[in-house]
Amino acid sequence: MSYFGDIYKGIKTLLTGMSVTGKYFITSRKGAITQQYPDNRDNLKMFDRFRGEVVMPHNENNEHRCTGCQKCELACPNGTIEIIWDRQIDPETGKKKKMIDKHIYHLGMCTMCGLCIEACPTDAIKWAQNFENSVYDRTKLTRVLNKPGSKLMPGVED
Amino acid sequence: MDTTIKNSNLKSEEYFINMGPQHPATHGVLRLLLTIDGEIIKKVEPDLGYIHRSIEKMCERDSYQQIVHLTDRMDYLSSHINNEAVCLTVEKALELEVPERVKVIRTIIGELTRIASHTLWWGVMGMDVGALTTYFYGFRDREMINDIFEETCGARLTMNYNIPGGLMFDIHPNFVKRVKDFIAHFKTKLPEYDTLLSGNVIFQKRTKGVGILTKEDAISFGASGPVGRGSGYSCDVRKHHPYSALDKVKFKEILKTEGDTFARYQVRVEEMWESLSIIEQLIDNIPEGDYKVATNAVIKLPKGEFYQKVETARGELGVYVVSTGTKNPYRVKFRSPGFSNISLLNHITVGGKIGDLVATMATLDIVVPDIDR
Amino acid sequence: MNITLSITTTIYKFLSEYMSEGAANIGTMVTIAFIYLAIFAVAGLYLVLLERKVAAWFQLRIGPNRVGWWGLLQTMADALKLVSKELTGTVKADKFLYNLAPYFVIVSSLMALAVFPFTKEFQAFDINIGIFFLIAISSIGVIGILLGGWASNNKFALIGAMRSGVQTISYELSVGLSLLTMVLITGTLQLSEIIEVQKNGWLIVQGHIPAVIAFMIYMIAGTAETNRAPFDMVEAESELGAGFHTEYSGMKFAYFFLAEFINMFIIAAIATTIFFGGWLSPFGITDAIPWLGAFWFLGKTLLLVFLMMWFRWTFPRLRVDQLLTLEWKYLLPLNLLNIILMALIVWLNLTIQF
């Protein structure tokens, strides 16, 4: 009789399996987990810690907080950050001081590990939540983070 | 079911077939050289190296903080646990005592990672034996965990949340609530995994008695994780060498003695329950305190050799660091669970059918970057 | 001109006004062939869309919803894309057989459609050995699959084709025997007469227990005949990549794909005709309006198609030896017993008649 018992048990397990999928079929209208991505751009908000790309915030006077200490450059595991700096005369004190010329960020090489942002002593760079980083030309992935003509914010020392 | 061929007068010819590196069942870029007689497998040769990125060599170039993010890219499904392994090794070498808060958070996120990895595995397991719907159900639950990770760590997969000495930043204020929501949600969904797939008569026929690994073989091949435990080999690092906050929680080591594909399947599903209970024990009393202890900006390990092992979702991950006292390690060796587990493949699939190979490979839970590194 | 639902006679009468008898006969055949081809090419495409939508709803997704309203033009767009694609192939393939294979599959599945009574008198070809014809035609398709898998010079395709041969030959038996069980009640093989018999109650009610068993066996074997999951050994994408059609592209692949869906429709349509009264409405509620029969026929058929889709999106795939065990150790003996049971019931007049 185990022959017929096997058939009965087999059919029973198949039907229980079907009841699970059937339940989802009936409630499929509200249960869909699909995110219709380009359509929901307006209300798609990333979490505030999301690592999209590294940016350098500037204030309204076009001033940033980067002193050019190069700690981020050292912390970066794969050479994503390059800092071109120069010693310039500080207009306030009149002394020679390290100033950044260009803070170059290669987005194409970045692994989003966040070590540079941890290393920064002056909070000059931070994560932006922008995730749509695709471009048509890889040269566009190399970005200069400090805006042209920007200066160091007064009072920021490392 | 007896799947070996009996002696007969019919002559047949063996032939080679290339399964992979681009094949739906090899989960990435694993290449299997199969010698087949009709449907029956005579020999399986895994051919590795398609995704080798020389992570161990790159570690010699990097500082100890930088090594951590490379381990994300090894076994990407349990990236947090890989990070933890490196951090624990460095902390062990520096004799650094991390705060209790760090230990508890590391354990919670580690167990969440394990559940995320196992839900993905469950979905893919179903897909490998032909039930495509499981994949979406598994991913639905995994998405919730990924959201928790994204909110707290900033990334969904390669989180890099650990640093030597603690965590990169504190947990997000929503963390506890979200984890509790997830536990409540997952407790209703996990029984469905059983009714949909485990109980199914076709699934049981496909997996029971297939790919049998004895305890002796498990030990001699160095199997670890659910593969070893499915054969009755008690090898849970969390139990035998507890790290982080795992010595403070009560959990059961899941052991099955059958050693077949279904036993390995059951071990993983039941492990999800155990991980849930570990998280439940810890989530309500995360101690207050710092989320890291200060370390030097340049970490220099004392001269010597250091080893630490942890239990990832796939098994035992060992990190072996040789230091000469400089800021870079002299040599780093990762003992990855996937590499030992894939070496079993030829041993346990010979004599089975192609379908058996796929089902067995699914329960070895292969992550190819973990094998190749 | 008096238009009735009987399309064959209508077209024949219309044509015979203009041409000789023989020419009118040929003209009728060609016209009907074109009508059926057009209808079922489109119907096949919409079955693909239905499958994708149903799969999406089972899997907590939305499904195609971009091309056209509610995604209704999605498969049309896919077909257009497939037409425009390059036809690739392997260098050492047997070119003649390789190119011939898709036509075997698609032609055999379209041929079977000819005999179905979609509603009273809407039937292209009412032949007195209807069921026999269906069973015979449906087994030609496997030749196409075997040829395609063998001729494409690919080991994965070859394994798939061999599995298909094994599977179809085995499950043909169960399909035939379960239909034979029902023929014991009807006493005829002609499809229109089978439906006449069911005016006293659908056969699944008339034949009660053995009929239900026969229906279950038929559904299992029918799913296997169409090579759909859980019996999709032939394609088994986690084992064989794409199975027998690995090396096919463009429209040749589309023929295989379309044939699978038309076959699914055929299997469901046979079940509707034999077990669920074809175009008959339940309790004769719409007998006054004859064309509503088509609605009932399609409704019942699509319900059974949905059942097959439900199977596909729930169950894991069987292994090839288990597939044969199921057939030879379970379905076939049960089927033979069932025939005896049905014979007894018919002999003792235990059928339920309304």
TrEMBL record, chain C:
The keyword Transit peptide does not apply. The keyword NAD applies. It catalyses: a quinone + NADH + 5 H(+)(in) = a quinol + NAD(+) + 4 H(+)(out). Its EC number is 7.1.1.-. Pfam families: NADHdh. It is a multi-pass membrane protein. The chain crosses the membrane at residues 23-47, 96-119, 131-151, 171-189, 201-221, 253-276, 288-310, 330-350. InterPro entries: NADH_UbQ_OxRdtase_su1/FPO, NADH_UbQ_OxRdtase_su1_CS. GO terms for molecular function: NADH dehydrogenase (quinone) (non-electrogenic) activity. Keywords: Cell membrane, Membrane, NAD, Oxidoreductase, Quinone, Translocase, Transmembrane, Transmembrane helix, Ubiquinone. PROSITE patterns: COMPLEX1_ND1_1 (PS00667), COMPLEX1_ND1_2 (PS00668). It is found in: Cell membrane; Membrane. It is an enzyme of class 7 (translocase). NDH-1 is composed of 14 different subunits. Subunits NuoA, H, J, K, L, M, N constitute the membrane sector of the complex. Belongs to the complex I subunit 1 family. NDH-1 shuttles electrons from NADH, via FMN and iron-sulfur (Fe-S) centers, to quinones in the respiratory chain. The immediate electron acceptor for the enzyme in this species is believed to be ubiquinone. Couples the redox reaction to proton translocation (for every two electrons transferred, four hydrogen ions are translocated across the cytoplasmic membrane), and thus conserves the redox energy in a proton gradient. This subunit may bind ubiquinone. This is NADH-quinone oxidoreductase subunit H. It comes from Lutibacter aestuarii. The gene is nuoH.
